[in-house]
Amino acid sequence: MTAQALVIGRELDRLDGLGEDGLSDTYRSYLEIVDSYDEAAQPKLALAAALIEAGIRLQGLGGRAAPAAALLMGDLCLARASRLLADNASQNLQVAFARAIEEMSATAASGAGGRPVRELLVGAFENGR
Amino acid sequence: MIAKRLRFKTSGPTQFVDITEQLREEVRRSGLRIGRIHLQSLHTTVGLAVNENEPLLLRDFASLLERLAPSGAGYEHDDFARRFDIAVDEPVNGHAHCRQLLLTGFTTLLVEEGELVLGRWQSVFAVELDGPRPRELAIQLDGQFDEASSPLAGEVAGHSPARGGFQAGNTLNDKDLVELELTRQLMVDPDPVAVPMRRLVEAGGKRLRPRLVQLTAQIGPHHDPLRSAALAAAIELLHNATLIHDDYVDESTHRRGRPTVAAMEGAERAIAVGDFYFAKATRLIAEIGNSDVTSAVAEALEAICAAQIDDVALRGAFPGDHDSYLKVVRGKTAALFAASCASGALLSEADPEAVEALRRYGDLLGVAFQMADDMVDFSPSSGKPVGLDIRQRVLSLPLIYAAEDREVGPEVRRLLAGALGDAEVGRVTELVRSSDALQRVGDEARGLVEAALRELEAVELDGLRPTLVGLARSAVDRNS
């Protein structure tokens, strides 16, 4: 097991089942687009984005509300992503990610269809440089 | 902080009014040494600009505005037959509104060494777009003032806005600043998220977390009331965001006497509003620009979410035990109390020992606060429905102690194991009151407060000790 895998595994504590739920694939997709960031931070930034995507999906944001247990798991994904960003991302990137979630949730609250989560988070990586 | 109004009369339809000298005079009179002066137009047809005061250039600007938004170009706004509630003196001014859109309505200028920071050719203009008229700009000056001319040490003096949730009068205290900041933040958000959050925020709440931020932000050598108010308001928004999701999970219909977001606007909206303010609060905290503060709050948020999962999982073993209770409460309640104390101290650049002592103070206070909150559920004079925690099977220390009681315990456990209708809830409440459970919880909460206060003994608190002591004691000796 690599050091990177160990770190990622530790960050998935209490988030059992996300691995089978496509988190690994999502993580790898983001890993491909964070290469302009500090190398040591790349895995954590990619994981933060993957967790946001997973969290939003678990909560059912913009669709049908998730049951309580799934909502809470989604909340934990978002909170963990937030902590990963607080510890590893620049202020610009933290702000860009927060704005992406604000846009998603404001759109969901208004009942309108919004841009896909992936597109918003990829945009956040671009804006946060 | 000083807040004022700058009033002037314009003399033409389009006019660049140079207000640079007036602003310089305001800075001089205020005694502001280093900081900012904020300007905001109070009109939809007056803009602000920083540019060169050269008469031919000003004519160029006027021509540019005329080309971009020509007067009399057939604006829908000027079609009075299609508008409602038109004032008798309503002007034909669609062009002026459109021109204002091209400018800005607010700006901030820096002040250093008691002087406005402007480049050689820069002047500040209020741009009249629909004159001539009397006009007004709001200005605020904040930062470090000369001791001699500072309006008030530790307080904020100046204009008292006519509306808003803060005290009338000539000074703004810390609490007012937080209310003002909350109002300001909620004013700029889209209605689908802002309206439900405003309902929750305006319904009250104890504002203990922001208070802790503002107090501890005075402990280190760098106390900035505006930055601490910004952090305090963000933490209050974060707390309220977690409550919105909690209410959906707990199926609560009311909070602070008003319908919950889930009950009134539906679960989908509740999730979206919670997420929006979760993100906005973390952004506001990131924008403060202190990475230690950002990390402290982020860790607390993670602890809250993990504890909420534990809390729901433990409802299967209701009423649970003391250890499980402490684990959940440390995360759900105490984590944000601890982060509030630590982040305020970090913001003021307090020394690390003080930060850690305050973090422990907040943690112990948070647990004690939750215990006192549990007791309120059994108090008929609290103004809240009695037995709500029982009905919702929420982890509660009085219930845990009553269930362990030799005399009433067996009946309490039997009742809690079955369906909980009005009769059962009433009977459990009666049994808890008749046992020594409430006394034990009260004693334990007061013990924790004393432990919290001991954490402060070795810390230099710059005169804040009595306030922190009073706040801690009042958090447990309460009835609501």
Report on this structure:
Chain A is mainly α. Chain A has one domain. Helix content of chain A is 71%, strand content 0%. Chain A is built from six helices and no strands. In chain A, α2 packs across α3, α3 packs antiparallel against α4 and α5 runs antiparallel to α6. Chain A is globular, with a radius of gyration of 14 Å. By secondary structure, chain B is α+β, with helices and mostly antiparallel strands. Chain B contains 18 helices and twelve strands. In chain B, strands 1-8-3-5-6 form a five-stranded antiparallel sheet, covered by helices on one side. In chain B, strands 2-7-4 form a three-stranded antiparallel sheet, with helices on one face. In chain B, strands 9-10 form a two-stranded antiparallel sheet. Chain B starts with a strand and ends with a helix. Classes of the chains: A mainly alpha (129), B alpha+beta (480).
Topology readout:
The complex is a heterodimer of chains A (129) and B (480).
Chain A: H1 3-11, H2 19-31, H3 42-59, H4 68-88, H5 91-110, H6 117-127
Chain B: E1 2-9, E2 15-18, H1 20-30, E3 32-41, E4 46-51, H2 55-68, H3 94-102, E5 106-112, E6 115-116, E7 123-128, E8 134-145, E9 156-157, E10 171-172, H4 174-187, H5 191-202, H6 208-216, H7 225-250, E11 254-255, E12 258-259, H8 261-265, H9 267-288, H10 291-314, H11 322-347, H12 352-376, H13 388-391, H14 397-404, H15 409-417, H16 422-434, H17 437-455, H18 465-476
Antiparallel strand pairs in B: 1-8, 2-7, 3-5, 3-8, 4-7, 5-6, 9-10, 11-12
Helix pairs in contact in B: 4-5, 4-7, 5-9, 6-7, 6-11, 7-9, 7-10, 7-11, 10-11, 11-12, 12-17, 14-15, 14-17, 15-16, 17-18
